[in-house]
Design goal:
Length: 134
C-alpha cells in the first residue's frame, strides 16, 4: 500500500526527540503487510507485520530550512481485530503494533534544531474496507 498524510505534533514527538521546532509537512510511505487470522474466514483476531520505507518532509520553523529524510520501519508484532458490522463484505479493522526504526539513529541537524529519531514507537491502526469474496 502507498499513502501520504500530514503529521501532527503528537506523532512528530513519537518519531523524534527534541523536535518542538520541527514541522513535518508530509509523510509518504510504501508498505507491505501480512496478517494471519485465527479464523479461516478472515474475521476476528489476527497477528501480522508491516514493513517499508517512509519519507518525511521536515521544516525547521525558526530558520525555515527544509529537508526530506527517509526512514525504514518494521512493525512487528501487530495485533488486531476485523469486524463485519453490516454483512459479509464491508469491514472495520483496528489494531496496534510496535514499530522498529531500522534506519540510522544518528542525530539530525536542520537549521537551528538538533533532533534524534526514536528507535521504537507504538502505532494504532484503523481501516475500513470491502472484500469481494468470503
Amino acid at each position: 500500500m502507498y499513502w501520504t498524510v500530514p503529521v501532527g505534533e503528537g506523532i512528530r514527538d513519537a518519531i523524534f526527540q527534541n523536535a518542538s521546532n520541527i514541522q513535518i509537512d508530509r509523510n509518504f510511505s510504501f508498505e507491505i503487510f501480512g496478517n494471519v487470522y485465527l479464523s479461516k474466514n478472515r474475521k476476528g483476531f489476527y497477528a501480522g507485520f508491516l514493513a517499508g520505507p517512509e519519507w518525511l518532509d521536515l521544516t525547521d520553523l525558526p530558520s525555515g530550512e527544509q529537508t526530506r529524510i527517509r526512514k525504514t520501519y518494521m512493525v512487528m508484532p501487530k495485533i488486531g481485530f476485523r469486524w463485519f458490522p453490516f454483512g459479509k463484505y464491508f469491514f472495520l479493522d483496528g489494531g496496534y503494533g510496535l514499530a522498529w526504526n531500522l534506519s540510522s539513529l544518528d542525530p539530525l541537524v536542520l537549521g537551528e534544531s538538533h533532533i534524534t529519531p526514536n528507535q521504537t514507537l507504538g502505532i494504532p491502526f484503523f481501516s475500513m474496507g470491502f472484500r469481494w469474496n468470503e
